[in-house]
Design goal:
- This protein has 336 residues and is mostly helical.
- The chain has 13 helices and no strands.
- Helix 1 packs antiparallel against helix 2, helix 4 packs antiparallel against helix 6 and helix 9 runs antiparallel to helix 10.
- It is globular, with a radius of gyration of 22 Å.
- The two termini are 27 Å apart.
Length: 336
């Protein structure tokens, strides 16, 4: 993930040709996959080569079972990229597509960062689910929300007042920055990251019913609302449609299925969602009352700090000690 982010930044800052970017990206993916296969081979040599003792009946059964996963992935991809792109080109024209994709790239950087600390939790989630240690899954969820507040919501709040200037420097003024669309993208990123643990948990245990329901609900809400809202509000309507689809699909539907398996306090979940609400209010005030942006920024950060304190107090002493130990290790590295 780190290499993917670096390649993306390299392409953005050096005007790397598109074909060269995909070539480098493909080579990195091949190397990573090869190293992963080699690691699995050394970890479980008794299963290598993996095609030995194969069974066509089992293979076909697994293939048909995986169709639901493939279909879910297709719907999700259509919701997040291709479908939205089709709407933009049909409503605004092909020339408007770079405006959306460029602004979305800024938000995607924060989604990539979140993946670095959430995705590695998958083996632990599977283990805790298998051993029915659901309180440990809840603790992992709380840790995810705590880190999410620090590495996603606070940076988004800090960056938003200045993102227009950064955007113009990046694009050299060749693309028109839309502040309302950017606000919607930032809010969507915050929602996605809040619900990421729900999705990872359901994906880890192969809960296909819930994953399919999430994708279908998001798709229906997105494409039913977008043609209405985009007609009245333009880019802002598109952004609102994306927010609604992610909020209902990722937070409500995914949260519903996740809580049926591993209940978590609704009060805690609501308070942990406050940074997203604070971000939304901050974006609204900065867009509509530009003279108050520094007061808005200060108040938003203070309110998010209260949420962080609440989240910290609800972590177990063991997790707190690990965080403190990690900070001491980072300080030692800094002094060295």
């Amino acid at each position: 993930k780190i290499i993917e982010i670096l390649i993306l930044l390299l392409a953005a800052t050096t005007n790397l040709p598109l074909y060269l970017y995909f070539t480098i990206y493909g080579l990195v993916s091949i190397i990573f996959t090869s190293l992963l296969f080699n690691f699995i081979k050394n970890l479980m040599p008794e299963f290598f080569p993996w095609w030995q003792s194969g069974n066509w009946s089992t293979a076909l059964k697994n293939f048909f079972s995986s169709i639901a996963v493939t279909l879910n992935g297709f719907i999700e991809q259509f919701n997040t990229n291709n479908g939205v792109f089709l709407v933009i080109t049909s409503m605004f024209g092909v020339s408007a597509l770079p405006v959306f994709t460029t602004q979305k790239t800024i938000g995607n950087l924060f989604s990539q960062v979140t993946s670095l600390y959430v995705n590695p939790l998958t083996p632990e989630i599977i283990r805790f689910h298998a051993t029915k240690e659901f309180y440990k899954i809840n603790q992992l969820n709380k840790v995810s929300w705590f880190i999410n507040t620090i590495v996603v919501n606070i940076p988004l709040i800090l960056i938003f007042p200045f993102v227009g200037n950064l955007f113009n420097i990046w694009t050299r003024g060749k693309l028109v920055f839309n502040q309302e669309l950017c606000a919607c993208i930032f809010i969507t990123v915050s929602i996605i990251n809040f619900a990421r643990f729900y999705i990872i948990y359901l994906s880890s245990i192969n809960h296909l019913k819930s994953l399919m329901a999430i994708s279908i609900v998001k798709s229906i809400i997105l494409f039913c609302s977008v043609f209405v809202l985009i007609h009245f509000y333009g880019w802002f309507g598109l952004g609102l449609s994306i927010i609604f689809s992610e909020f209902i699909g990722s937070v409500f539907v995914a949260g519903y299925y996740s809580n049926r398996l591993t209940p978590i306090s609704h009060v805690y979940a609501t308070i942990s969602f406050f940074p997203t609400i604070i971000l939304s209010a901050s974006c609204y005030l900065i867009i509509n009352f530009n003279g108050l942006q520094y007061y808005t920024l200060t108040l938003s950060l203070v309110l998010v700090l209260f949420v962080l304190i609440f989240q910290w107090k609800n972590l177990t002493s063991d997790i707190k000690n690990r965080f403190i130990g990690l900070i001491y290790q980072l300080k030692k590295i800094e002094y060295q």
